[in-house]
Amino acid sequence: MVSNQHLRLFILCFCLVNTAFIAATEDENNERKPYIVYMGEATENSHVEAAENHHNLLLTVIGDESKAREVKIYSYGKNINGFAARLYPHEAEKLSREDGVVSVFKNTQRQLHTTRSWDFLGFVESKYKRSVALESNIIVGVLDTGIDIDSPSFDDKGVGPPPAKWKGKCVTGNNFTRCNNKVIGAKYFHIDQEGLPDGKGDSPADYDGHGTHTSSTIAGVSPLIRFVFFLFNCYSVSWNRRKTRYALFQIKVCWESGCTDMDMLAAFDEAISDGVDVISISIGGSSLPFFEDPIAIGAFHAMKKGILTMCSAGNNGPGLFTVSNLAPWVMTVAANSLDRKFETVVKLGNGLTASGISLNGFSPSEKMYPLTSGTLASNLSAGGYGEPSTCESGTLGEDKVMGKVVYCEAGREEGGNGQDHVVRSLKGAGVIVQLLEPTDMATSTVIAGSYVFFEDGTKISEYINSTKNPQAVIFKTKTTKMVAPSIASFSARGPQRISPNILKPDISAPGLNILAAYSKLASVTGYSDDNRKTLFTIMSGTSMACPHAAAAAAYVKSFHPDWSPAAIKSALMTTATPMRIKGDEAELSYGSGQINPRRAIHPGLVYDIAEDAYLRFLCKEGYNSTTIGLLIAGKKNNTTKTEYRCENYKRGLGSDGLNYPSMHKQVSSTDTKVSEVFYRSVTNVGYGPSNYVAKVWAPKGLRVEVVPKAMSFERPGEKKNFKVMIDGVWDEIMRGIVSASVEWDDSRGHLVRSPILLFRSGNNYN
Known about the structure:
alpha/beta
């Protein structure tokens, strides 16, 4: 007979064995995934010593020497302390509780946020002031898809040698054999080497075109190109009259499958050490807490070394709460229009015309072509799979499409090719695509094509179904003037959810239909079977806006090499041009306005932010002292390393707790009264004594008071404090967004403007 004690022991053993079996089974069923273990600021120890410390930390969690070395992918240790490793979820969770670890997060895939633009900003070469000697000492690091070194935009004729401070390298590889005095360095990071998704081998070469486009926007050198679009179009545009001398350092972090967190963090670590002055990164993803976001992490460490990071705001607009890259130490850039738009006119057999949008370089060889619709060209039997009305692949018959223009209702296969590609594969003559929502972004088509507004599409469909012999012709794209600037429809909007009282985006720059260099290794449309190549192309996205802002930051830096990243950012924001077309979202879509580089070199006053101020802000935001201490690797007092404690420092004051150039507050939907205070400090960067007076603009029902109303400065570098008090009642007729502004005027040409934006959730704004 078994005693109760033996029975309990048996049950306990069974449970332990069963639990271990289940855990082992779970591990087998859930393969290890790449994680990043972020540990704050790198110490002065060698990279080799840091890597060994990372191994020892892994060993404490995994418990097996060889397995710990096997699963570690990469060690960061130049400026950023941390490592990447393949972990099970329970191992990642255990590591997150270890001393010295700030955060542990999955390695995710992020995506790219995908002329005359400098002339539009008033940046004509013959008219703007330059500091050529200092320009030659400015290095801009670009994290992107690589670069085509053979593009004429990167011709280094007349450009001197790389700056003496440059510490980087030129890594060569497939289709990338050299750097020069314009592109002084190039590297790539493809850390997780489990398969090369593009099949082209690892190198800094640009097979996408995006990196070449953004890089040439920053530092293209062609003085004037009368560019014939796709080499056979009839219209021409002038491009990039600037002869900038900024040096470029291209770090390829984006591959065919996307841009991984671990690659981007490695690129930041490298760029900081190699001597860059500005970093431009047109990449983004979901909004995450700052120290689970590789861009926020990398930019924080860059800021500590005096480097300003420019980020694209994202392309998920026009909805609210879509903006990405939210850290206050980065500059987040929205996309605005130029004063040019592209029209592709469609004419029907009955004489009616519709003005669509595209980049169509095909001239019609006939006056009219037979016209059909996807519905009429269907090859599906009853009950077949697919939607022929939207011209999905496999739903149309070649005998019904060949030689005809095909009208397609709005739609696109997820991850597949567009309607233009489908119709061309069936030997169609052209394609007209109906848009569900209006767009201002022109895209290239692989055959004659135009995207028409919904109402025009409905009329075309009615025409097709009302006659036995419908006809149409698609004309070549032409350019027309438009009122500008306005924010592009795709540009992501605030407010943000991570730090709700910091206004994002910060600023806007041209990002709609931007002409710049393109890679010879990429096709015009991106389709693998499109054999057309071009040296220049037109692209849209906040990806295109970001390098404009990066170049503007480099321009300001060339005049003020000793300015902090926050001072440069402030100069760009407070001198920005208010948007001519505001839109419903107001400053939530464009921040302070469109960059104005010529004014930014002499802003008069700047809102500076030191590293300690960011730390006090993080304390106010709820980050704990241990985490913040790791970010700065401890404060050293002789040989003693002291612990950072939030309670020992004065936390950021007021509604936002940071000396930010804009002022923003999100209020509850139940709040009927507004009562906010913003504390600010400005530094005089003018040349002599000056007197500033505050000018306030506020809507009815909102009182904005500045104390003091006037400030006098005797010398450069002098600081003055003031506060802005906002009071009012949220009237029923008010929308969920209320704008105001404060502007400091010295009557000598300096206008230092800060937008104020209040946002109340609810009222269809959630």
